[in-house]
Amino acid sequence: MEENNANLKSWIEVKPDSDFPIQNLPFGVFSHNGQTAVGVAIGDKVVHLGEAYEAGLISDVTKSNVFNEKSLNAFLSLGKTEWRNTRKKVSELLREDNAQLRDNAELREKCILAQSDVTMQMPVEVGNFVDFYSSIEHATNIGSMFRPNNPLMPNWKHLPVGYNGRPSSVVVSGTPVVRPKGQTKADDAELPTFGPSKLLDIELEMGFITGLGKPLSESISTAEALDYVFGMVLLNDWSARDIQKWEYVPLGPFLGKSFATSISPWVVTMDALEPFRVAGPKQEPAVLPHLQCEGDGNYDIHLEAHIQTEKMDASLCMTKTNFKAMYWNVPQQLAHIASNGTNIEAGDVYGSGTVSGTTPDSLGSMLELCWRGTRPLKLPSGEERKFLLDGDEVTLKGWCQGDGYRVGFGECCGKILPAK
Ligand SMILES: O=C(O)/C=C/C(=O)CC(=O)CC(=O)O
Ligand SMILES: [Ca+2]
Ligand SMILES: [Mg+2]
């Protein structure tokens, strides 16, 4: 794909450490002067696709203007050929030798905005939200805390375990997270009590977003899965561990996770991630035929979570991990969901599950990083944290490292506000 060529340069200045060089071109939804539209990020600018379409700059790639919309859903419904052609067209428009927009001040004024002048919105209207549990390190760590006798359940290596989450509380980065209230029961207490969660945590995840999939009763094979996946975002599955611990048997996560899930606003396309595909870990025992996957199923994505309390002047990196070690990959996750004939829709969000590495500084939740509160995090402000306190802000970052450029995801942040 010419759009991924490391040598491409844009006439828009892009700093070397920018997440959004011309090789990326992620899609998002922004508002500006009371108007909401679909845009593409480049450097610290946004290309207003609604205006670009009206000006005839990209109008030959889709049948109608699906870009003056409040979400990416209409665009996602068009399918992979249109997604790919749109990114290709935008890439061509932004190349240093293309004068069409570069030398037209009036058009540039309409079509190119500063990211600092726009407000990012939820990229999609979420119809379905699923969260997987696909890191073997995370599942083993959490399992050993919640179920010391059998950390990894017998099904875990045979199917990508997941649960249906709550689409309406998936929020865009920057949305404050109000501390949830709920039922909890201390180990030595006889009865539960109701009140603000005391063990509020993060989960560092990636999420993939689908386009229009197949109708009810059809399935999707691992080989065709990526035809239905538009792109990926950073995802923080905020988790109230005390609520979760008391409620989860026998039906799994419920109110301990449904109060908020944050995603980053820019959706990095699977096409932009293509150069960063790598082999995943060997799956042993072999998985059933409908979950077998040819070729490199994983992506080399560096991930970090940063914390900043109200007493800190700058944020501190709590953990560094990588998406490439995930046991179950995106095609397997999608093939699994669709294997019973459920429908896949444009704008669905599928969380990868917490991404934990093998070392103590590469774990994807505070529950693991601080090992149930036994290894508190020491902060430069002299404070300690085992879980999040009111006023704490968490920022997830992620990027793929290319040769002299990075394909990044921007940030996914949220600040904890006191319970109401
Ligand atoms: O093992 C459990 O009972 C619970 C696990 C989680 O909290 C993890 C979850 O949300 C899935 C994941 O992020 O990997
Ligand atoms: Ca999760
Ligand atoms: Mg959640």
UniProtKB/TrEMBL annotation:
GO annotation, biological process: homogentisate catabolic process; L-phenylalanine catabolic process; L-tyrosine catabolic process
Enzyme Commission code(s) on record: 3.7.1.2
Pathways involved: Amino-acid degradation; L-phenylalanine degradation; acetoacetate and fumarate from L-phenylalanine: step 6/6
Stretches assigned to the Fumarylacetoacetase-like C-terminal domain: 131-398
Coiled coil: none
Top enzyme category: hydrolase
GO molecular function: fumarylacetoacetase activity; metal ion binding
Domain Fumarylacetoacetase N-terminal residue range list: 23-123
Residues of the active site: H138 (proton acceptor)
Co-factor requirement: Ca(2+); Mg(2+)
Binding of Ca(2+), residues: D131, E203, E205, D237
Listed Pfam families: FAA_hydrolase, FAA_hydrolase_N
Positions bound to substrate: Y133, R147, Q244, Y248, T354
Record keywords: Calcium, Hydrolase, Magnesium, Metal-binding, Phenylalanine catabolism, Tyrosine catabolism
Residues annotated as binding Mg(2+): D237, K257, T261
Family recorded in the similarity comment: Belongs to the FAH family.
Protein name according to UniProt: fumarylacetoacetase
Organism: Uabimicrobium amorphum
